[in-house]
């Protein structure tokens, strides 16, 4: 569990402290996720709600790994891509899915730590493996839906579909653009909110443990 705690600290720094991901933080995060997935297979690690959420965070880094490897291949072999704009948008959407999923799951872990510290008995029926699995699934569904909308907007822009889909379907181009804009705005403010909430949770936990 000590190694998993260190992994969570790394992930908090990567997604909720740093303003933007770097190659170094991404690489370290991928190494940490690989090690954590191997560690979670051990019989010494019991199946709890926290470990379920940690496992989902580690699996989310598969998306970052795909982007990382793709960039390495493109740079190393000078691969020519037929649709550069769309491919770039696709990789960016994978990174967005990875970031948003990880931030939401990390916030769930922070909330769970808050419940364990202040309401250990009252929250026991909430902190179950079943609820953790459902929470992870809902987060994945929401993030995938978000990225599909972003990808639809990028596809319409890249292929210039708005020029030949006809006036009857022109609303699709404008609708996807409007929804994507609203989602990006919501994601921005939600990111700020999650940072504040996480700081509050761990601030309360830290001073509670200090007083004890």
UniProtKB/TrEMBL annotation:
Keyword set, alphabetical order: Membrane, Transmembrane, Transmembrane helix
Keyword Translocase: no
InterPro entries named in the record: GPCR_Rhodpsn_7TM
Transmembrane segments annotated in the record for this chain: 12-40, 52-77, 97-122, 134-152, 181-203
Assigned GO CC terms: membrane
Localization per record: Membrane
UniProt domain G-protein coupled receptors family 1 profile: residue ranges: 32-212
Sections of the chain in a coiled coil: none
Entry keyword annotation includes ATP-binding: no
This protein's name: G-protein coupled receptors family 1 profile domain-containing protein
